[in-house]
Write a structure and sequence with these properties.
single chain, about 120 residues, alpha+beta, Immunoglobulin-like, about 15% helix, globular
Length: about 120
């Protein structure tokens, strides 16, 4: 009986984890035709981990199945990337952003990819 109870508890924990990570982030990206790498990072600059990477020449970029937490984007093609402000996401929510990639800094900071 105990092994079956352990399997049930494990299944419930896995289902709860899967249900908790249902947040989406939809981004409208304007790159003026230039292809860029869009890297979703969890945490804060200086203490983060890459979650997912997309390649885009503009248009819609979506990241789904996100858990609650702090996220930001690193956008660029080399070691020098543009970094967006950190956003705090809640479970089960949908977020949207519009980002225009320019050659100037605008509302994003420029950082070394290795420093993230």
């Amino acid at each position: 009986m105990k092994p079956m109870l352990g399997a049930v508890v494990t299944s419930l924990l896995l289902m709860a984890r899967a249900e908790a990570c249902t947040t989406t982030w939809n981004i409208t990206l304007e790159t003026f035709g230039e292809g860029v790498t869009v890297e979703l990072r969890s945490g804060v600059p200086g203490n983060s981990a890459a979650v997912a990477t997309r390649r885009s020449s503009g248009g819609q970029v979506q990241f789904g199945s996100l858990c609650a937490g702090d996220y930001f984007l690193a956008i660029g093609n080399d070691d020098s990337v543009n970094v967006t402000p950190v956003r705090k996401f809640q479970n089960g929510s949908s977020y949207s952003s519009s980002i225009t990639v320019t050659r100037s800094t605008g509302n994003v900071a420029q950082r070394s990819r290795q420093s993230l």
